[in-house]
Design brief:
single chain; 421 residues; Rossmann fold; 6-stranded parallel β-sheet; globular
């Protein structure tokens, strides 16, 4: 098939949405010819990758609509500030303007190349389908995310700014699900050919609840391209339990939940926490660790190169996630590929990926119960035979999220879409 893909964020060397876009585009290119419309700020990295991998040039063609002064710039300190501020609506407005230019280009390309279908990949947020569903070819949308709200009973823990920000986001989210016109039309167009891809089971339920249509769950990310699976490391009796947490230091990532749980552990239990990443909350979280008397056993590594971050993760014994707003974090699959059992909230994409064979999911009924659940789960990991068993389970579980499995699922969607089934 000849596919037109829309992937505003798409980069072979970056994570987050950029990694999602690249992973799906590359997956499509393994079996189809794909033409991709991408933000111009990704151009240098994409062309560098193609120069190093010329065999893909026949299967991947990229188009970069000219970047206007009001479009997002990934290296701009101003745009970085806007992205994490109450003024993020400005970024959304700029993205919609880019989508308008991209839609005009998509119309021209479809007229010349007669694509079998158009697949909107990134951004994954449900409120931004643009007008690509109006093209005169079948429309595939996904992985779709962003419909779930932050649990309201956790908002007080996020600090004043975090509570206000995520409360406002919840209100906007609910309003947009009810009233935005383009998502309603895009879901209807894709649903006509069973071509909606939900990133998680929770998102699938939200799509059915708000739009009354079915979707298929395909995780938005895949395991990293490690050369081999990593054996579960061993913790000797005299060694402390090494915990690892990784993420951008934002209120929604909720590291304080883990710090409060660690403060409740028995005094004779030896442990260390390795914190990767940085962000606006870094200073506050370090002060919180000090006030809880944990400073001697918490190492804040900051923002380090990916290879160094993976080394820290590989040398740890357990990976912990506390995020209250996510789809499926890429570090989750990285940790599992490294043979780490995972402790995480029982929501978002974590609910889908983690099973009792590879980790522990903590219910998010209320703050106190969640913190206590974290404490108990960490205590369980002190049992080395159990930890080894869960680590081996993680290594097995990750195979189900391979890109090979995803491309099989995607091909079924594509074939059904083009046949009208």
């Amino acid at each position: 098939m000849r596919i037109l893909a829309i992937a505003y964020a798409c980069n072979p060397y970056r994570g987050s949405e950029h990694g999602v876009g690249w992973g799906w585009v590359k997956m499509i290119a393994e079996v189809h010819e794909v033409h991709v419309i991408v933000a111009e700020f990704e151009r240098v990295d994409i062309e560098r990758w193609l120069a190093d991998n010329p065999c893909y040039r026949e299967r991947m063609t990229f188009y970069f609509p000219h970047n206007r002064p009001w479009h997002y710039q990934k290296k701009s300190s101003l745009w970085n500030w806007i992205e994490h501020s109450p003024f993020k609506l400005i970024m959304n407005w700029a993205y919609r303007l880019w989508q308008g230019n991209a839609f005009s280009l998509a119309n021209k390309l479809h007229g010349s190349n007669n694509y079998d279908l158009c697949h909107l990949i990134t951004y994954v947020g449900f409120r931004f389908p643009g007008r690509f569903y109006q093209l005169s070819c079948p429309f595939v949308w996904g992985p779709v995310g962003g419909l779930e709200n932050t649990p309201k009973h956790f908002l007080p823990l996020l600090g004043m700014y975090g509570a206000i920000y995520y409360s406002f986001r919840n209100l906007i989210n609910t309003w947009d699900k009810k009233y935005l016109e383009h998502p309603q039309k895009a879901f209807a167009k894709a649903a006509a050919t069973n071509s909606i891809i939900a990133a998680t089971t929770g998102i699938r339920q939200e799509i059915e609840k708000w739009y009354g249509v079915e979707s298929r769950v395909v995780c938005e990310i895949g395991p990293p391209p490690f050369e081999r699976m990593v054996a579960v490391n061993e913790r000797l009796d005299h060694d402390p339990l090494q915990l690892c947490w990784s993420g951008e230091h934002l209120p929604g990532k909720a590291l304080p939940l883990l710090l409060r749980a660690l403060a409740r552990l028995p005094e004779n239990m030896r442990w260390f926490l390795h914190v990767l990443g940085e962000g606006p909350c870094s200073s506050f979280w370090k002060k919180l660790a000090n006030s809880l008397g944990l400073q001697a056993r918490c190492v804040f590594h900051g923002l380090v190169p990916r290879e160094q971050a993976l080394e820290v993760m590989a040398s740890s014994h357990v990976f912990v996630i506390t995020s209250l707003k996510d789809l499926t974090s890429s570090v989750l699959l990285e940790a599992m590929t490294l043979g780490k059992p995972v402790i995480a909230p029982d929501h978002c994409g974590f609910s889908d990926v983690i099973t009792r064979e590879c980790g522990v999911k903590i219910p998010i009924t209320d703050i106190g119960c969640f913190v206590e659940g974290l404490r108990r789960a960490i205590e369980r990991m002190w049992d080395e035979p159990l930890r080894q068993q869960l680590g081996e389970g993680a290594s097995r579980r990750i195979c189900q999220y391979s890109w090979e499995n995803k491309v099989c699922a995607l091909n079924e969607i594509y074939e059904g879409c083009c046949s009208g089934e």
